[in-house]
């Protein structure tokens, strides 16, 4: 199914946009993420309920470790997939390789004729979405990581979201995700700022309004 969705995204942009294929592709991954999170939570809960039974504790701990490793492996594989997809999208729309830069991407659009500029913008929007998904994958890695691993993954997630924001400044989605990251470290000022940024754009992220209300209630 993933290969089919990828083929549609790369071969028929109009159909892909009409049927939200990029989002459907992400949902394939997200459903698996939710399954693994549920298994992990159940294993942790089960381990806690059996602490008085000494013979069962090692078994439960092993299960928690195994599921966490499966989760990390899946997230890493999905991250690799989206990195590859970005490369394919860049190749299709003639975008340069290397780190995304707002200035260089804008020059590409300005230097081309109108039709080509429109095609390039399509590629940039698709890359923007992929960067959001990469940020989410890194964020989940951080949530289930430990120590330095956790902070590294959150830093990576922040980098992906910021790149997404620079590629499509009118989208509120990356700012909303950055607000979520800020809430993990209880940085309420940054969270509120990002929620506002998420709404004060041409394409606001509507969920930010509800989260902003919750933030003020706190």
UniProtKB/TrEMBL annotation:
Keywords: Repeat. InterPro entries: DNA/RNA-bd_Est1-type, Est1-like_N, Est1/Ebs1-like, TPR-like_helical_dom_sf. Residues 157-218 form the DNA/RNA-binding domain. It comes from the Eukaryota. It holds the Pfam family EST1. Residues 21-144 form the Telomerase activating protein Est1-like N-terminal domain. PANTHER family: NONSENSE-MEDIATED MRNA DECAY FACTOR SMG7, SMG-7 SUPPRESSOR WITH MORPHOLOGICAL EFFECT ON GENITALIA PROTEIN 7. This is Telomerase activating protein Est1-like N-terminal domain-containing protein. It comes from Citrus sinensis.
């Amino acid at each position: 199914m993933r290969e089919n969705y990828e083929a549609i995204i790369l071969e028929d942009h109009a159909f892909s946009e009409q049927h939200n294929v990029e989002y459907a592709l992400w949902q394939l991954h997200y459903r698996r993420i939710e399954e693994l999170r549920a298994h992990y939570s159940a294993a942790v809960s089960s381990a806690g309920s059996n602490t008085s039974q000494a013979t069962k504790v090692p078994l439960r701990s092993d299960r928690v470790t195994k599921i966490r490793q499966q989760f990390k492996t899946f997230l890493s594989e999905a991250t690799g997939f989206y990195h590859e997809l970005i490369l394919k999208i860049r190749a299709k729309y003639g975008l340069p390789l290397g780190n995304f830069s707002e200035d260089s991407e804008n020059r590409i659009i300005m230097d081309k004729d109108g039709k080509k500029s429109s095609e390039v913008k399509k590629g940039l929007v698709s890359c923007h979405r992929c960067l959001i998904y990469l940020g989410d994958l890194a964020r989940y890695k951080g949530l289930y990581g430990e120590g330095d691993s956790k902070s590294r993954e959150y830093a990576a997630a922040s980098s992906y979201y910021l790149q997404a924001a620079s590629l499509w400044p009118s989208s509120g989605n990356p700012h909303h995700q950055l607000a979520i990251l800020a809430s993990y470290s209880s940085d309420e000022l940054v969270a509120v700022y990002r929620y506002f940024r998420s709404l004060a754009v041409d394409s606001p992220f509507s969920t930010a309004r509800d989260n902003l209300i919750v933030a003020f209630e706190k």
